[in-house]
Write a structure and sequence with these properties.
Elements (H helix, E strand, L loop, with lengths): L4 E6 L5 H12 L2 E6 L12 H9 L4 E4 L9 H4 L2 H5 L10 E4 L1 H9 L3 E18 L7 H4 L10 E12 L7 H7 L10 E10 L1 H4 L1 E10 L4 E4 L13 H17 L13 E2 L25 E9 L6 H7 L7 E5 L6 H4 L7 E6 L5 E5 L5 E6 L5 E6 L27 E4 L3 E6 L4 E9 L7 H10 L19 H4 L10 E2 L5 E3 L3 H16 L5 E13 L15 H5 L9 H11 L4 E7 L2 E7 L2 E5 L4 E4 L2 E6 L7 H8 L2 H22 L4 E11 L3 E11 L9 H5 L4 H8 L3 H4 E2 L1 H11 L11 E5 L5 E5 L3 E5 L3 E2 L11 E12 L5 H22 L1
Helix pairs in contact: 1-18, 14-23, 16-23, 18-20
The protein binds the ligand C=C(O[C@@H]1C=C(C(=O)O)C=C[C@H]1O)C(=O)O and glutamine.
Length: 817
C-alpha cells in the first residue's frame, strides 16, 4: 500500500528538506516538493485552476514552507496564496503554513504582517500555549497544541503576524490571548512567544500559531524542524496530521492515488543516474580506468614536513596539487579537534587529464595537461548542470570579463599520501594495464630515500628551521591598512567605512525578512613584482634554488615560499598549495566542508563564530565564555540547519544527525565554533545489479548539492547569494569561498572551504606597479575575508572580524616585504 502523500510548497528556503524529512519520518508519509514558482503550474495560464485542482487531488494535505521575503510580495509566496483561496468543498484540503507560509495565511485572512521590533534568527524560545488545565472539549477542537507539554523552538523571522495583539491591555491579555481578535476574526491564536524588549519597550507579543475557524488551515511561526526545537514539539505536527486526516475523513475526501504529479521527490536523483542520458561516445574512456594499482610504503623520518618531501622529489613541476594537513605536527599546540591525518601530494600533472568548466558556458572541456590539446567538449545539456551559483538559480553577471574555469577536476594517477598518524608515506600510481613495467613508484621511493631529509641530514625538529630565515629580518608588525611595504609592493585593504556601511546594508535586508544571516566578504589586493617562478622549490641536489643562485634577497618570495611561510605561521588542518592552469592558491583553511567514505558516510563541519586570540582571550575556557552567547550560537545554528538541509536533499529523510553542536576549537590565531553534521547516503535497493549501480549515490552527489558552502553564503542560500552579489558589487569572490579537495577511486573524499588563503591568476598582471612606471610587470594577489552578519552584529565588530581573518594570510606579504 502506498503511503499518504503530502505536497510541500517550497519557497526557496534553506531549511525545506529538514521539514520534508521531519514530516516523512514522523507521519509515515511521502512528501513531494513543488517550488512556489513552478513553471508547471503557472497562475497566468488559462487552465491554471484546473491543473491546480488536479495536482491537489493527489495529496492528503499541503504544507506551505518558510522562505525569504514578505507575504505581501507575490513573487515571494507564489502558489501559496492560491492555496488560501481554495474554498468549495471539492477543492479544499488541509494545509499547514510554516513561518513564511504561516505569515501568508495570516495576510490572506486580513491580518497584518509587520516587522518585529528586532528579528529573531536562530533564537530558541519557549512556545507558550494554553495550559493543560484550560483544555476542554470546546478549546481542544482543532487545537494542535492540546496536551502537548512545554517546549522550546527555534525562530527564524524578521516579520510577524499581527492580529491585533499589541493593542490588548495587560489586564485583558490573559483572557484575550486565546481568542480571535477583532482585527482578524477568522484566526484563533494557539501559541505565543513573549519577548522582553527592555525597560522602555516592554514585552512584544509574537504570534506563534493559529488555526482557521472554519477552514482546515493551521500555521506555525516557529521552525518545528530545527535541530534545536525540542522533541516535544513533534507532537504538534502529529496532532496536525491527525486533525488533517480527520477533516478529510469527515468530508469523505480521498486523495487520488498514483497518476502523474507535477511535484518531485524530496530527494534528488543521483548524479550517476544522469549518465544514462549521456551520448554514446564516452569521454571518460580516456581516463584509462582499466588500470593496475601499484604502491609502496616507506616510513617518514621524524620531523619531516610536507614541503620537505615536495622539495626532495626534485625540480619543480609547473603545476602542483598539495593538500597539506599542516597542523599535524603542530596539533599539540593547536589543540583543534581536526588533526589532519593525511596529506596528499599529486604529481605528473603535466600529463593528467582534466575537466574544466566556466560557469556561463553550457559545456565543459576535457583536456590533457595544462596546455595540452582539447580532447573533447562535453555538452551539459543532458545533465542538470555543474555546481555553481547558476545551479541554485542565481545567475552571474554577463559578461564576466574573463574565461577562467570555475571548476577544475584533475585525474591524478601518481601521488604520495602521507599518513601522519602512522608516520608513513604511500607512493602510489594507477598504471594503465599493459604498461605495468613503469618504474615510477620505485624510482620515486629511491629518490626520497636517498634525499637529505630521509638520510638523517635533516634537523629533527618539529618545525622546519631553514624556512624563511632570509625574510625574518624584514619582519615588522604593522597596522593593516592601504600602504606600500616596499617601493614595489602595494596592499589595498577594504576601506573601514565602506565595509561598515555594507554591514549596515546587510542588516537592512535582514530586518526586511529577506535573509536570516549574510556572510559578507571583501577582498584585499596585493600587487608586487612578478616572482621568478622558475626559481621555485629546490633543485635536484636539495639546496634551495634561490640560495644557489645567490639572488634570493632581491626576488620576491615565490608562491611556494609564501605557502611555506603561511603553513608554518598558521598551521591549519586543511592547508593547500595549488598551481593549476592559470590559477595559484595558497591556503591555510581551518574549515572542513565535506568528508565522505566509500560506505556513504558523510560529515560536514560548518564553522561560525570567530574570536581573535589576545591577552584577554588566550584560553579555550575564555573563548568558550565569549562564543557561547546567543549571537554566536545563533550564527552557527543557522548554518547547521542549512547544512542539514543540504545533506537531507541527498541522504533522504531521517539520515542526518548532529553529533557535536557548537564546539569551540583552538587554532593558531583564532578560536572557532564548529558543529559536526553527519549523513548516510541511501543504499540502492538492488545494490549489486547494474541498474542498482546506476542509481547509486556517492559523496559527489552531496558535494554537488551543497555548493556554494553555506557557511560562506548565509541563509537562506539562494536569496542570500542574490543579496550578497549586489552588496559585494558583483565583484567575483573567485577562488576564495569555494572548495578544494579530493575524491579517490575508492569513493572517499575530503573537501575544505577556501578561506584564510591567498590566490592569483596568471592573466591578472599589471604592466608596472611602480609609481615611476619603471619596475617591470607586477602580479596581483588577492585575499578574501569576511564574516557572518546577523541582526545582532555591529558594524565595528564585523569590520574587526574581517581584519582579524585577513591578518594571517596578509602577514606573509608584510613579512617578506
Ligand atoms: C568568511 C570567512 O570565514 C567564514 C565565516 C566565519 C564566521 O562568520 O565566524 C567562520 C568561518 C568561515 O565559514 C573568512 O575566513 O573570510
Ligand atoms: N523563516 C521564514 O519563513 C521567514 C519569513 C519571513 N521572510 C521573515 O523573515 O519573517
Amino acid at each position: 500500500m502506498s503511503r499518504p502523500r503530502i505536497l510541500f510548497l517550497d519557497a526557496y528556503d534553506s531549511f525545506s528538506n529538514n521539514i520534508t524529512s521531519l514530516l516523512t519520518t514522523l507521519l509515515d508519509v511521502d512528501v513531494f516538493v513543488l517550488p512556489i514558482d513552478s513553471p508547471l503550474l503557472d497562475p497566468t495560464s488559462a487552465d491554471f485552476e484546473q491543473r491546480l485542482r488536479e495536482e491537489l487531488s493527489r495529496y492528503v494535505a499541503v504544507v506551505c514552507g518558510p522562505g525569504p521575503g514578505h507575504p505581501d510580495n507575490d513573487a515571494d509566496v507564489g502558489l501559496m496564496k492560491h492555496i488560501w483561496r481554495l474554498h468549495d468543498a471539492e477543492d479544499l484540503l488541509p494545509v499547514l503554513g510554516i513561518c513564511l507560509g504561516f505569515q501568508s495565511l495570516v495576510a490572506s485572512c486580513g491580518g497584518k504582517v509587520r516587522r518585529l521590533q528586532r528579528g529573531l534568527h536562530g533564537m530558541v524560545r519557549e512556545i507558550l500555549h494554553r495550559p493543560a488545565a484550560d483544555y476542554n472539549e470546546e478549546t481542544t477542537a482543532g487545537d494542535i497544541f492540546a496536551h502537548v507539554g512545554n517546549f522550546k523552538a527555534t525562530l527564524y523571522h524578521s516579520l510577524c503576524g499581527d492580529i491585533g495583539q499589541q493593542a490588548v491591555s495587560e489586564a485583558e491579555w490573559d483572557k484575550a490571548r486565546w481568542r480571535a481578535l477583532p482585527a482578524c476574526p477568522d484566526l484563533l491564536p494557539l501559541a505565543w512567544v513573549e519577548e522582553h524588549r527592555g525597560e522602555r519597550d516592554g514585552v512584544e507579543r509574537i504570534l506563534m500559531a493559529v488555526k482557521h475557524r472554519t477552514r482546515p488551515f493551521w500555521g506555525l511561526q516557529y521552525h518545528p524542524e530545527s535541530v534545536c526545537t525540542e522533541k516535544e514539539g513533534n507532537r504538534v505536527i502529529v496532532n496536525w496530521f491527525r486533525e488533517a486526516m480527520w477533516w478529510n475523513a469527515s468530508r469523505q475526501r480521498v486523495s487520488v492515488p498514483g497518476g502523474d504529479i507535477l511535484a518531485r521527490d524530496a530527494t534528488k536523483p543521483s548524479l550517476l543516474s544522469q549518465l544514462s542520458a549521456a551520448p554514446a561516445e564516452q569521454w571518460w574512456e580516456s581516463l584509462h580506468v582499466d588500470a593496475v594499482y601499484q604502491s609502496m610504503t616507506i616510513s617518514l623520518p621524524h620531523g619531516v614536513q610536507i614541503p620537505d618531501i615536495v622539495e626532495a622529489l626534485g625540480p619543480e613541476e609547473s603545476e602542483s596539487i598539495i593538500l597539506d594537513s599542516a597542523n599535524a605536527a603542530a596539533s599539540a599546540a593547536a589543540r583543534a579537534d581536526v588533526r589532519g591525518r593525511y596529506s596528499v601530494i599529486a604529481t605528473g600533472l603535466e600529463e593528467a587529464l582534466r575537466i574544466e568548466h566556466h560557469t556561463c558556458d553550457d559545456y565543459a572541456t576535457v583536456k590533457v595537461g595544462r596546455v595540452g590539446g582539447l580532447l573533447q567538449r562535453i555538452s551539459l545539456a543532458p545533465y542538470s548542470g555543474i555546481w555553481g551559483l547558476s545551479d541554485i538559480g542565481v545567475p552571474l553577471q554577463h559578461p564576466r570579463g574573463h574565461h577562467r574555469p570555475d571548476l577544475c577536476f584533475v585525474w591524478v594517477t601518481k601521488s604520495l599520501v602521507v599518513d601522519h598518524t602512522m608516520g608513513v608515506v604511500h607512493i602510489q600510481q594507477l598504471c594503465p594495464r599493459g604498461l605495468e613495467e613503469n618504474p615510477w613508484v620505485e624510482k620515486t621511493a629511491t629518490r626520497l630515500l636517498s634525499s637529505r631529509i630521509f638520510q638523517g641530514r635533516f634537523p629533527p625538529d618539529g618545525l622546519s628551521p631553514r624556512k624563511e630565515t632570509q625574510h625574518v629580518a624584514t619582519y615588522q608588525q604593522q597596522p593593516l591598512r592601504t600602504r606600500r611595504l616596499s617601493k614595489s609592493t602595494s596592499i589595498q585593504t577594504p576601506l573601514t567605512r565602506d565595509y561598515e556601511s555594507k554591514v549596515e546594508l546587510c542588516q537592512e535586508f535582514i530586518a526586511a525578512g529577506e535573509s536570516y544571516e549574510l556572510c559578507l566578504t571583501d577582498q584585499t589586493k596585493i600587487s608586487r613584482p612578478v616572482s621568478d617562478s622558475s626559481a621555485e622549490k629546490s633543485s635536484a641536489d636539495g639546496l634551495p634554488m634561490q640560495k644557489r643562485c645567490g639572488s634570493s634577497l632581491s626576488a620576491p618570495p615565490s608562491s611556494w615560499q609564501l605557502f611555506k611561510m603561511l603553513r608554518s605561521r598558521q598551521p591549519a588542518p586543511f592547508a593547500s598549495y595549488i598551481r593549476l592552469g592559470e590559477a595559484t592558491l595558497v591556503s591555510a583553511s581551518p574549515e572542513r566542508f565535506l568528508q565522505y567514505d566509500q560506505d556513504g558516510y558523510c560529515s560536514m563541519r560548518p564553522m561560525k563564530g570567530t574570536v581573535r586570540k589576545s591577552e584577554q582571550v588566550s584560553t579555550l575556557a575564555e573563548a568558550e565564555r565569549i562564543l557561547h552567547i546567543p549571537k554566536e550560537e545563533a550564527e552557527n545554528l543557522m548554518i547547521v540547519d542549512l547544512v542539514r538541509h543540504d545533506l537531507h536533499g541527498i541522504c533522504g529523510a531521517g539520515n542526518v544527525s548532529v553529533p557535536h553542536l557548537l564546539k569551540v576549537e583552538e587554532y593558531q590565531s583564532v578560536f572557532q565554533m564548529i558543529t559536526v553534521v553527519e549523513g548516510q547516503l541511501p543504499k540502492p535497493a538492488d545494490g549489486d545489479s547494474e541498474s542498482g549501480n546506476a542509481q547509486r549515490y556517492t559523496g559527489l552527489d552531496v558535494l554537488a548539492a551543497s555548493l556554494p558552502p553555506g557557511s560562506m553564503t548565509g541563509a537562506p542560500k539562494k536569496r542570500s547569494c542574490e543579496i550578497l552579489q549586489q552588496i559585494e558589487q558583483h565583484h567575483e569572490r573567485s577562488l576564495y569561498s569555494g572548495v578544494v579537495g579530493y575524491m579517490c577511486a575508492t569513493g572517499r573524499g575530503d573537501w575544505s572551504v577556501t578561506i584564510r588563503s591567498l590566490f592569483r591568476w596568471d592573466d591578472e598582471q599589471v604592466p608596472s606597479g611602480g609609481e615611476d612606471g619603471g619596475e617591470g610587470p607586477h602580479e596581483v594577489w588577492r585575499i578574501g575575508a569576511g564574516g557572518a552578519v546577523t541582526i545582532l552584529s555591529t558594524p565595528e565588530g564585523e569590520r574587526e572580524e574581517m581584519f582579524t581573518k585577513l591578518a594571517g594570510p596578509l602577514r606573509v606579504f608584510a613579512d617578506s616585504g
